[in-house]
Amino acid sequence: MKSLPPYAFRAPIKFRMPTSKNLVPIRLDIEVDGHRFKDAFTWNPTDPDSEVTIFAKRTVRDLKLPPTFISPITQSIQTQLSEFCSFQGQDMHAREKILPIKLDLCVNSTVVRDQFLWDLGNFDSDPEDFAKIFCDDMNITDPQVGPAIAVSIREQLYEMAIQNVAFAREYRIGKKSRRGFDPIVNSSKASTNALDLSKFFGSKGSAIRKRREWDMYDPIVDILSNEEVVALDARDKNSRPV
Amino acid sequence: MDLPPETTPQPLLLRQTPSGATVVKPETITIPQPNQSNSTPEAKERVLPLRPPAITIPSYSRWFSWTSIHETEEKLVPEFFDGKSPSRSPGFYKRIRDSIIRKYYEGSGKKITFTDVRRGLIADVGSVRKVFDFLETWGLINYTPPPVTKEKEKKKSVEKKGGNSAEGVAKKDNNIEDPATKTCSGCGAICSQACFSTEKTEIILCARCFVRGNYRAGLTSSDFKRLDIEEAAAAAAAAAASSSGGRASFGQIKSEWSEKETLHLLESVLHYGDDWKKVAEHVGNGRSQLECIGRFIKLPFGEQFMATVGGGRQDLVFSDNEKEEDDDDSNLAAKQMRLNPLADTSNPIMAQVALLSAMVGLDVADAAARAAVSGPTDDLVMDIGSHTNLVVRKEEEKEPITKMEEDVGMEHRRKMLEEAIVEAKVQIKKEHEDLEQSISDIVNVQMKELHEKMDNFEAIELLMEKETSQLRQMQKLFFEDQLSSLQYKHSLETAVEDKIKIPPR
Fold it and tell me: Cα(A114)–Cα(A145) distance, rounded to whole angstroms?
């Protein structure tokens, strides 16, 4: 896969998730009458609107939630979807951009903590695939961990992709002179987190991480006991502004 | 697959266990399933733990296979196969499908919810929902077969009351035409005795369709509630719309039909067919045509087979049906004992054939036998099945064969087959002759052509000869001319010479 150096100019493309499947991460956190419902999943934006109501009703029925949940669930999903769609018409730049992705989630007593690098410009990347392989490699038996990982990755990619769009808009507005390309300006203005891989490939660098960095990038998967889960929940709740 | 022909795709019970072993029960069909833990393409697949109990799926889903995608799936969930959506592909579909079904099996047949499944699957929830709904509709997951206990109960009541059950059904045949408000959405017939409605959808089924499982996939027998309909006394008002099939229009004849009379009746029907006048004559005893017809229709042909044949048919019994015709019960019971030589057949296929040919007219059974000779297919069975249903509905034209006529019918069919063979041979001969005739015609025509050509050539030759002779003549003439002119020249020359010689003196 030939990838152009970071400063090479690429024509902007229409906004989409920088993954092979253009799926939207949806997160629900709804509180009605003292009942709290939290969930996260992936949604295909090409599904018709009717699908949202069907999904909401199904979920409420399957989980035996009070029917008052149907409406807020529907609304929340629709809001997030329309937000995604509003970005869709805009331009984004697709160039190689290596950014760190962090996983820090707790699903049903399985705790997963990890960080790794992801190329935002790689439109062939697949968080679902990553999640599946991760679970297999780490021997995670709980099937609900995989989707949670995939959603988490997607959310972060989504965030970063949005920043790209926002930047592209600013850049177009701010451009005064008609320049053929000014990619160097681009990359400096863009998020500075991006790693310049060219540093690593060359006579001085090596693609292999330094030893002291190994621990940082080692994934942690823990099975908690019930008490620990409760403690974790309580801590999360407290840290959140009520 | 060797399946006995079915008239409707009723859900026979399939037992399949995830690891591939099959459980055989008398009324179930078994299909060997590959061991799916080896068949998945994914490298690290979880091996199933202990062998869960057998899972049943309805027979209309027997096409399912772990290793392939059936065209039913391609048709009903096309989003994965038309390539319009980049995230949906057949491989994706198969992965989701296999995961869902495996999850269902892991739960040993406990119902799984969509949310359960989608939380455990790494995929977008829209796709998961589509596949889940499809599988649930087709009973591949969350399917509960109709309860076995109910059937067993009915079976018992059949045995207790002997001929009554079959008779009740026969009567039901008659009563189908009675004016009632409920029309069955499965077969279109009017429901008389009892109807079954489900709250899930607006479907009302007559008893027959309900028992046969003639309802939309996705509904189970437990979804239906039974509603009895007030039996309009068959004697009275039924005269209204009904055609002559209704017993009521003939009035109730209370005098019993003796065995002898019934025998005569059957014999005469066999001989005279539709000619009820002669039948009545033959039966004698002052039985009018109408009585004969009525009696004939009332005879419970073939219904008794339903009690003995395996599958869901035995529950065609409704105890409410036996209210009338108690006087004929004992007679019929005895008669049936004698009149069904084929009923005790242990060969289920023979029983089925007997049943079908009993329920259907002679012609149809005949055609079926012929078709059977040339190799039956599933479609054909379905056709016969639907044909059977149609014929059952057509009360008045119906001439069901009795058990006694069975044998005769068989011979008749054999004779017909032989005749057919002879006819075929004759036709073949004719064809040959035609062929030869046309060949000789062609040859004749060719000959004529050749003759004409030859004549033409002869004429041309003649002409040529004439011309040649003419040319020769001309040649001769020219030659003569040449000669004469040469002579003249010579004579002139000599004359001149002479003249020159003489004058010098």
Answer: 13
**CATH number of B181-238, picked from 2.60.40, 1.10.3470, 1.20.5, 2.10.110:** 2.10.110
Residue B129 has its nearest CB partner, among A21, A23, A55, at: A55
Residue A77 at interface with chain B, using a CB cutoff of 8 Å: no
The alpha carbon torsion through A6, A10, A15, A18 (nearest 10 deg) reads: -40
| Cβ contact A21–B122 (<8 Å) | no
H helices of B162-288, in order, are 163-175, 207-212, 259-272, 276-283
- Compute φ and ψ for B414, nearest 5 degrees: -60, -45
Whether this model's pTM surpasses 0.95: no
A with B: how many residue pairs have Cβ under 8 Å apart? 65
pLDDT in tens, B396-417: 444 554 555 567 778 888 999 9
Tally: H helices and E strands in chain B: 17, 6
**With contact defined as beta carbons under 8 Å apart, do B298 and B247 qualify?**
yes
CB contact under 8 A, A62 and B115: yes
pLDDT digits (tens, 9 = 90+) for B361-390: 767 777 877 877 776 555 555 555 555 555
- Closest chain A residue to B103, measured at CA: A143
Distance of alpha carbon B365 from alpha carbon B352, whole angstroms: 12
3-state helix, strand, coil split of chain B in percent (to 5) is 60, 5, 35
Query: Given an 8 Å threshold on Cβ–Cβ distance, is A62 in contact with B116?
Result: yes
What is the domain class of B257-299 according to CATH? Answer: mainly alpha
Q: Which chain A residues are closer than 8 Å to B100 by Cβ?
A: none
Nearest to A43 among B86, B121, B126 (CB): B126
Tell the residue number behind the tokens 């206990």, with chain if given: B149
- CATH architecture of the region B59-138: Orthogonal Bundle (1.10)
User: In this complex, is the C-beta atom of A84 within 8 Å of any C-beta atom belonging to chain B?
Assistant: no
Q: What is the pLDDT of residue B329?
A: 47
